[in-house]
Amino acid sequence: MFDSGVGGLTVLHECLVSLPEEDFLYLGDDARFPYGARSADDLRECSIRNTRFLLDRGAKLIVIACNSAATAGLDAVRELAAERDVEVVAVIEPEAEIAAAITENGRVGVLATPATIEGGSYVRALAQQHRDLTVTAVAAPALAAVIQRGFPFSEAVVEQVRAYCEPLRRARVDTVILGCTHYPLVRPMLQRILGRDVRLVTAGHAVAARIERILNARGLGTANRREGTYRFVCTGDPEAFRELGTRFLQLPLGEVEKVDLGDA
Fold first, then answer.
1. Of the candidates 32, 232, 46, which has an alpha carbon nearest to the alpha carbon of residue 144?
2. Would residue 66 show up in a list of annotated catalytic residues for this protein?
3. Which among 60, 65, 125, 210 could disulfide-bond with 11, CB atoms 3.0 to 4.6 Å apart, if both were Cys?
């Protein structure tokens, strides 16, 4: 599993709960954070490099736990992984399926990074759900970086989030996809601003369910019946990653290995 930083740990948390026997290796490319401000070509190269590293470490399945990377790099990652007969799960498609299934008024909002919004991946994924949906997509340029820096948040941050949410409120959406794996960490704030009746869709549970289906279908599920392992590597400061990641994962991270993957 890889992400540009610690945001993907919100996905890993759900996987550890749903698939406790499996072993997980998480790569945080925090030296190049944030992905959401990078070009599509740059994101594609980052995704390829991260995937190659995880495949070389023996991954039996790749999870792209970053919406921006999935938007720009999913096809390239699937092509690379297919060379070793490894499947790829990304965060976008499972979220689109859930949002289309639960919206009552057909008005779906997407709150994501600029790279994800500009890439149009959610609009395409929602268009394939066989429902007549109206999609309102809003870019939140600073939100992932604010969350990555850690808590607490100032009133200025709350006002900034209100401004991001205003187009969604005007569009009267009843379902909002949190299109960045950092965003579940501010779910209470978003729920308060958007209203208690708006359903917020996050990637974690849906991704875990899809992983389980693929492992079972391909006979790749572990025979281990004890708790599996979870390990971490990062490209930036391992101590900073461990400290912030512990808050995101809500479990101890242990030792974090630093790796140099070269320039994207």
1. 32
2. yes
3. 65
Mind listing the domains of the chain with CATH numbers?
A: 2-90+205-258 (3.40.50.1860), 92-203 (3.40.50.1860)
Q: In which element (H, E) is residue 203 found?
A: none
From the candidates 15, 46, 66, 165, which is the catalytic residue?
66
* pLDDT tens series, the chain, 264 aa: 999 989 899 999 999 999 999 999 999 999 998 888 899 999 999 999 999 999 999 999 999 999 999 999 999 999 999 999 999 999 999 999 999 999 999 999 999 999 999 999 999 999 999 999 999 999 999 898 888 776 667 788 889 899 999 999 999 999 999 999 889 888 999 999 999 999 999 989 889 999 999 999 999 999 888 999 999 999 999 999 999 899 888 889 999 999 999 854
Start-to-end CA span in the chain (Å): 18
46 catalytic, yes or no? no
Other C-beta atoms within 10 Å of 52: how many? 14
Distance CA 157, CA 124 (A): 31
> Residues 15, 46, 165, 180: which is the catalytic one?
180
Residue type, 237: D
Q: Provide the b/e sequence for 192-207 (b: ≥16 CB within 10 Å).
A: ebbeeebbbbbbbbbb
